[in-house]
Amino acid sequence: MQDDKQAIYSTNPVKTDDSTAYGYKQGIIMFVKKDGSWKILLSSPEKNWGVSKAGTNRTPAQVEELLQEMILDSDKDGITNMYELCEGSQMGNSKCVKTDPNKRDTDGDGWWDGIEAEF
Q1: What is the pTM of this model?
Q2: CA separation (Å) from 109 to 112, 116, 117?
Q3: Lower CB count within 10 Å: N or C terminus of the chain?
């Protein structure tokens, strides 16, 4: 995704399965345009989501459904729906700011929510 002042590029999520967890990983890089040049805002070669194998009573289908929910970014703004709704790993984080997972720029200021979260 790109417009005249920001860009987000990511790899497709890749499924992982190690001795401790089932999960997905994804590389992401964010750019902002400053003084007419593109600058790297964030480079994360391996963003991870996972479900622990220890003590889980979920079926493989339930685990996959949860993982799909964890990685979903409906508006393609660089942050997942769960993060935007202050759910999952953000649940209970008093500093989490809810944004609209269906609106790339919740506050309408021209900066996508994922870019703005990195400022």
Answers
A1: 0.85
A2: 8, 10, 13
A3: C
Within a domain: residue 106?
yes
pLDDT at residue 91, rounded to an integer: 82
Q: What total number of domains does the chain contain?
A: 1
pLDDT in tens, 25-66: 999 999 999 999 999 999 999 999 999 988 778 888 999 999
Domain, as residue range, for 29: 6-118
Spatial distance between the Cα atoms of 78 and 117, rounded to a whole number of angstroms:
9
> Considering Cα of 29, then 30, then 34, then 38, what sign does the dihedral take?
positive
Q: Where are the alpha helices (DSSP H) in the chain?
A: 60-71, 81-84, 113-118
pLDDT of residue 57: 87
Q: What angle do CA 106, 92, 26 make, to 5 degrees?
A: 60
- Share the mean pLDDT of the chain: 93
